[in-house]
Design goal:
Blueprint: H1 2-20, H2 30-55, H3 63-76, H4 84-109, H5 114-127, H6 132-152, H7 156-159, H8 162-165, H9 167-226, H10 233-266, E1 275-278, H11 279-289, H12 295-299, E2 301-307, E3 310-313, H13 315-336, E4 341-346, E5 353-358, H14 387-397, E6 401-407, E7 411-417
Parallel strand pairs: 2-4
Antiparallel strand pairs: 1-3, 4-5, 5-7, 6-7
């Protein structure tokens, strides 16, 4: 029981940290942002040492501080190898040091010079392009550390000088404006999603009425052709077969409308985990609810249960995630004209995971970094572009992640990784 409670609270703490450090704007992958930050820091740290030391000498410079900044930035070049939680911890540490700490300390040690005052302002603008909570943590930690270091170096007078203090209103105004601008962008994205959901709802309503009419007409025709009024047995069975296919397509379209509406409604839901969900049961529910076109298409999907596992999430949202992944996999097979789908539930893995493997058309390398970007779809007419972005957003809210390994014209593997299983409570 004690081990279970410890594991539960550890999982909740990790979820809180995930929420606290969560990036703003799901359209950008965290690894890409860290890599770009690392590249910029690795180049500019030594470059500006040369500029401020040789061409426009400043009163104070520090090779040691710049060397430490370069080391931290170099570590970011390997961001793809980091676990998501490690990546977030690294980013918080690096942002705190490279931006507010380094630039504030150099500003104070150079007696609030104009060059370092402008440099500090630019550093804060860059910092607050990240998620506001993360940027505020880095700002407070880095600025406090820089002030303490400056005091230890005997720059108390500079810290309390008019030249230094008058920068604070400018900095705070800049941070407030950037934070409001990010909120506005977020609201715009939400409005677009809400509009998309409303549009799908309207389309669904407009489609259901004619589909109901078609379905009723087909039932009437089936009854008519079911009577012995056909001129031949072949004609009768041919007509009955065609009408049955029409009726099947109507049912299929209604199921697809249900799937679209589920995806549209999910973007407006609270995504936080509220229950423990069985992955095997979720996959079984998804396979029951997916509108397969035919038995042959259904036979293309194989489930391999290595070991079931449970995760903190929401059952309905988990089904939506899997429905979207299966729909994409079957579309890839259809475009390629070959392939199969394997779904592997692997609870024995060190990190419990679900594998979605299709041997269809794969994904081109230049499109792979974009597939989780909201409103991006490939080919351009292939859907609304909210499916994979929604899957990623849901999994991030559950302290989990989704990634893709692919080879063009060969396969695509979507890997859903979840926190380690909690120990079952003792009875």
């Amino acid at each position: 029981m004690t081990q279970h409670l410890v594991s539960t609270w550890k999982f909740r703490l990790q979820a809180c940290l995930q929420d606290l450090l969560h990036y703003h704007g799901q359209e950008q992958h965290a690894v890409t942002r860290v890599f770009l930050l690392a590249c910029i820091g690795t180049v500019t740290m030594p470059l500006y040492y040369l500029i401020w030391h040789q061409f426009f000498p400043q009163e104070y410079e520090s090779v040691t501080l710049r060397a430490l900044g370069i080391v931290l930035c170099l570590l970011g070049l390997f961001a793809r190898c980091y676990h998501p939680r490690m990546l977030q911890t690294y980013l918080l540490l690096t942002l705190s040091y490279v931006l507010p700490f380094f630039f504030t300390y150099m500003f104070l040690m150079n007696h609030a010079s104009g060059v370092w005052g402008e440099s500090l302002l630019i550093a804060l603008v860059l910092l607050f392009h990240f998620e506001t909570a993360l940027a505020m943590q880095a700002y407070l930690a880095g600025t406090l550390a820089a002030c303490l270091a400056a005091i230890a170096m005997g720059e108390t007078a500079t810290l309390s000088s008019k030249e230094a203090l008058q920068q604070l209103p400018i900095h705070w105004f800049t941070m407030a404006v950037l934070s409001v601008a990010k909120v506005s962008r977020h609201m715009l994205a939400q409005e677009k999603l809400a509009g998309l959901g409303a549009g799908l709802t309207s389309v669904a309503h407009e489609l259901r009425t004619p589909l109901s009419s078609v379905n009723a007409s087909v039932r009437g025709l089936i009854r008519t052709y079911g009577a012995d009024t056909c001129r031949s047995v072949e004609e009768k069975f041919g007509a009955l077969d065609a009408l049955a296919r029409i009726q099947f397509e109507v049912r299929h379209m209604n199921h697809m409308i249900d799937l679209f509406l589920l995806s549209a409604s999910a973007v407006r839901k609270n995504l936080r985990p509220v229950e423990m969900v069985s992955m095997n049961a979720t996959v079984a529910t998804m396979l029951q609810r997916y509108p397969f076109v035919s038995d042959a298409q259904k036979q293309q999907v194989a489930l391999e249960l290595r070991a079931d596992f449970h995760f903190a999430g929401q059952n309905e949202l988990a089904v939506i995630v899997l429905l979207n992944l299966l729909r994409n996999a079957l579309k890839a097979i259809h475009r390629a004209g070959k392939g199969r789908v394997r779904i592997i539930v692997d609870g024995r893995h060190r990190t419990p995971r679900l594998l979605f493997i299709d041997t269809g058309c794969g994904i081109a390398p230049n499109h792979l970094p974009l597939i989780f970007r909201r409103f991006y779809s490939y080919p351009a007419h292939n859907g609304s572009g909210i499916g994979l972005a929604l899957c990623q957003e849901i999994l991030r809210a559950w302290n989990s992640r989704i990634r893709c390994v692919t080879r063009e014209q060969a396969y695509a593997i979507f890997v859903l990784e979840f926190p380690p299983q909690l120990a079952a409570p003792a009875r």
